[in-house]
Specification:
alpha+beta, 2 helices, globular, binds copper (II) ion, binds zinc ion
Length: 167
């Protein structure tokens, strides 16, 4: 019986570790066909407050960049094949990571003067199961977490993209 109990507890630890494991998403510049240059990874981890996205990216123009989960796990046609923002509640509203709109609205990423993006961001309305088989998208411009004055936060063209696969 004792042996059985320790076997079960080892199993439980293994299950817990698997659930906590980070997801590593390789990111690439978008391209008209296929994928562009590799620019680094974004590591996704769940904690009690939501999902933490930790970027390790280079070659991103200095400043703010809109960052979202787009529905379709496909980065083709300069990112357009990823379709729109992840919106399981069909809100059709872009309100940012703390609003009641698209669940795929993530906090803005910031590239420093050396064109590196390394500051983690927290998305409080997401769990890791939400992000599998979708795309992470980084836009050319920033994000004001509103559909005004420009739709979808004003991020404009799609700069970099990566697909989140279940590991
Ligand atoms: Cu986007
Ligand atoms: Zn949105």
């Amino acid at each position: 019986m004792k042996r059985y109990c320790s076997y079960v507890s080892v199993l439980l630890v293994m299950v817990a570790t698997a659930a906590m494991a980070a997801i590593k998403v390789p990111m690439y510049y978008t391209a008209a066909q296929g994928q562009g240059k590799f620019i680094g990874n974004i590591v996704i981890e769940e904690n009690p407050y939501g999902l933490v996205f930790t970027p390790h990216l280079k070659d991103i123009p200095q400043g703010e960049h809109g960052f979202h989960i787009h529905v379709t796990p496909n980065c083709g046609r300069n990112g357009l094949d990823a379709d729109g923002h992840f919106d399981p509640g069909h809100t059709r509203k872009h309100k940012g990571p703390f609003g009641e709109g698209h669940r795929g609205d993530l906090p803005v990423l910031y590239a420093d003067s050396e064109n590196m993006v390394t500051t983690p961001v927290l998305a409080p309305r997401l769990k890791r199961k939400d992000v599998y088989e979708h795309a992470l998208m980084i836009h050319v411009d920033g994000d004001n977490y509103s559909d005004y004055p420009r739709k979808l936060g004003g991020g404009g063209a799609r700069l970099a993209c990566g697909v989140v696969h279940q590991s």
